[in-house]
Amino acid sequence: MNDLVIRTENLTKVYGEQEAVKSVNVHVKKGRIYGLLGRNGAGKTTIMKMVLGLTSITSGEVQLFGKNIRGQEKRIYPRIGAIIETPGFYPNLTGTENLEIFAKLRGTSRPDAVKNALEVVGLPYKDKKLFSKYSLGMKQRLGIANAIMHDPELLILDEPINGLDPIGIAEIRKFLQDLSKERGKTILISSHILSEIDLLADDIGIIHEGNLLEESSMDELRKKNQKYVLFRVSSTATAARILEQKCGGVKYRIEDDNVMRIYDMDIDLSMVNQAFITNNIGVYESSVCDESLEDYFKEITGGVGIA
Amino acid sequence: MLKMLEAEFKKIKRQKFILLTVLAACLFPIPLTIVIVHSKLNYDTLLMFVMEFGFFLVLPIVLGIIASILFRMENENGTLKTLSVIPVPRWKLLGAKVIIIYILAIFYGVAAIGATMIGGLFTGTISDIPLKLAISLSMSVLIATASLPMIAAAVVFQKNFILPILCSVIYAVASFAFSVMLLKVPAPLTLLFRCSLPFITANPERMEMVENVQNWVLPVFPCILSLIGMGTVCMVLSAYIYRKQEV
């Protein structure tokens, strides 16, 4: 229990009639990267906002570093670096001027904190370019620089790779991994990009329509993810009927009119193939696959995918 | 708080409207000097003109627009989120912005009176410079205090740019109209006008002769107390609303 940096208990947020977050229990362990995965509007940002005190909590509680945040904000929040939604900066100032303001307000003691933070994210120090002229990727980098400038123990990053180019994404990913692995920082990151969470996170929380459907380590999730045989056929409806007749009780799922998955790996594939062909079903592909995070996401949300 | 103030000053760097008003206040001496020299005006008449129109009409509108810029910039750019996470208490942020407004009010006020003084030096009709500077300084502070309802409007409508400015213009113009019509409306700016008239008029003897003006003028001390009371209510209300606003 003591190694939990973030712990929420039945965290709930109601906006008018709509319940945006429903009794969510998130557990973020020290030194780990926790990926909060969900579609747009699933409630990821609202959870992060409640954790950071940016929006009121309807019910439930948030514990940071083992303490309830109520009344402890002044002690707890300086230990956190965060980006929520788009990074907020003054458009009439340069990146350096912006960071200097926030460094001063934070009371950052290191004189070279701004310079170092800008170097880490690959932005120039004392550049004359105003924030209003920054590209989305540069804005995002400046947001990350601001979040890490005071060397926080916990980073809360809401969709931090939005707007970054592929090289930028890889750089930031590597940087966050180093922060976590080498310097023991705890990171809560949200994204709707499955592949990114897959590559970055140690632990994952899948959120859908305000509910936290799954919370586990990525290793456990990978173990859980099943192997399956993918069949591309001329008619999945007929194929399903044949499957029921020949191998009753077999676990399968129809993707669309032509694609189906068979999860029972003990099944005699040559027999299935033969049964399909003898019943005039065209078999165009049959291959053994591993279920991806996207597949798992679809399965537990009952949806069609994330993006 | 000093850090907050320093940060607030940095934030207004390159803000065109504020730069423009500061520049206008600095360049004020030139046209006024020309007016004084060419029209051979009495310095006190010009001073009264600057006080009445500049302080009671233009200055509150300028302060209202600046308040609107200061509060909206945090909301529009999402910096209120960044500041809240640091965490910067909202009351401190509000306090720093209000102090900036007071500092600018003093700057504009002293610059305007300084401008008329330069004109007065050319005509040689100027007298009591320290007293006049003290009056301009006090008037600037009091005008800023009487403008606190506009700051409350800027806090309430911080997501909107036009609405708080519109409120400021209506408040300043209506208060000015109440004042010139000698109405006894308890608007802070009108109250201030009523108690400051004996200090800013160019013809105190004439004012004493007109009975309805005499009846309209208020004593200074209770008036300032009322202003401070109203200002305090506005600040408490603004702090409460600002703290409650979610980002």
UniProtKB/TrEMBL annotation, chain A:
SMART domains: AAA
PANTHER family linked: ABC TRANSPORTER, ATP-BINDING PROTEIN (PTHR43335)
GO MF, any single term: ATP hydrolysis activity
InterPro entries documented for this protein: AAA+_ATPase (IPR003593), ABC_transporter-like_ATP-bd (IPR003439), ABC_transporter-like_CS (IPR017871), P-loop_NTPase (IPR027417)
Superkingdom of origin: Bacteria
Keywords tagged on the record: ATP-binding, Nucleotide-binding, Transport
Official protein name in the record: ABC transporter ATP-binding protein
Stored SUPFAM superfamilies: P-loop containing nucleoside triphosphate hydrolases
Family statement: Belongs to the ABC transporter superfamily.
Pfam families (UniProt xref): ABC_tran (PF00005)
Organism: Schaedlerella arabinosiphila
